[in-house]
Design brief:
The chain is mostly helical. It has one domain. Helices cover 83% and strands 0% of the residues. α2 packs antiparallel against α3 and α3 runs antiparallel to α4. It is elongated and about 55 Å long. The two termini are 12 Å apart.
């Protein structure tokens, strides 16, 4: 089995993991947005609160999603499928855009526009990963 064919099941599995992590990330983000009061400016005592745990989990999971996005992109490059490369690149870019919006939300007085941008970029990232997953599953079924 050549490298391209062996990479397909791994590629599909990583995209499914990415979908799952993105959904968890969204749920934690909504919980933080709705139920955690973040002081302005953030003080050291905040990080001793239960809200800080949710916020730090959201940030840490976001970093994991970004790292996985890079890995998925490089697997798409290895496969050589131009469309998968394009869509996984878009997925990663949208994850980074959501992260930047999140940091702006955190450090700009919890401006609701940045929360909206995070949610919109989440939808774009989630959607961008649909195409390569469908292509990968289609190839597996045809094999």
């Amino acid at each position: 089995m050549d490298g391209k064919r062996m990479a397909l099941p791994i590629f599909s599995m990583l995209i499914m993991i990415q979908f799952t992590l993105l959904l968890i990330e969204f749920i934690i983000g909504m919980a933080v947005n709705l139920y955690v009061s973040i002081p302005e400016p953030i003080k050291g005592s905040f990080f001793m609160s239960s809200g800080a745990i949710a916020l730090l989990a959201h940030i840490g999971l976001g970093a994991l999603v970004a790292i996985l996005g890079v890995l998925i992109f490089f697997l798409a490059l290895m496969q050589g499928n131009g469309r998968n490369i394009l869509f996984t690149a878009f997925g990663f870019i949208f994850v980074v855009a959501a992260a930047i919006s999140g940091l702006a939300f955190l450090f700009d007085g919890q401006n609701p526009a940045f929360s909206l941008f995070m949610a919109v970029f989440f939808i774009f990232a989630f959607s961008a990963y649909l195409f390569p997953l469908a292509q990968s599953v289609k190839r597996q079924v045809q094999s």
